[in-house]
Amino acid sequence: MTPFTKQVVAIIAAIPEGKVMTYGQIAAHAGSPRAARQVVRILHSMSRKERLPWHRVVNAKGLIAIPDEHSRLMQETELISEGVEFQMDGSINLRLFGHDPGPAYLLDLDPSTDEQ
């Protein structure tokens, strides 16, 4: 797993119940602000294996970005069950429900201290 992927997985895993983060926000916190699409790929390929709370990740407008209707409804249901509220336009107020992990969640990715 690359250092960026490790950071992305750690950040997503740490999103608390009832909060959301955006793909771009996760990419920026993981050290690559322009890698939102890479976050999408990581989330898609690793959410089941890593047991990530995939439903807590939305797009920059606070909208569910999944085109598949069944999956979108599943994500919406999960978020509502955690207390996240949707606005009339279907978006989530990121000021109220957004999560900003700050630097405390960043991993020490110095290869000389990597314990696997």
Number of domains as seen in the coordinates: 1
Total strands = 2
The amount of beta strand, in percent, is under 5%
Please tell me the overall pLDDT: 89
Can you identify the CATH class? Mainly Alpha
How many helices in DSSP terms?
5
Low-confidence stretches: 109-116
Sheet of most strands:
2 strands, parallel
Largest beta sheet: what is the strand line-up?
1-2
| Name of the CATH superfamily | Winged helix-like DNA-binding domain superfamily/Winged helix DNA-binding domain
* Name of the CATH architecture: Orthogonal Bundle
The termini sit apart by 11 Å
Q: Assign the CATH topology.
A: Arc Repressor Mutant, subunit A
Radius of gyration, Cα only, in angstroms? 14 Å
The rough form would be described as globular
Structural class: mainly alpha
Helicity level: 25-40%
Order of helices and strands: HEHHEHH
Domain Methylated-DNA-[protein]-cysteine S-methyltransferase DNA binding: 3-80
Protein name: Methylated-DNA-protein-cysteine methyltransferase-like protein
GO molecular function, one term: methyltransferase activity
Pfam family, one: DNA_binding_1
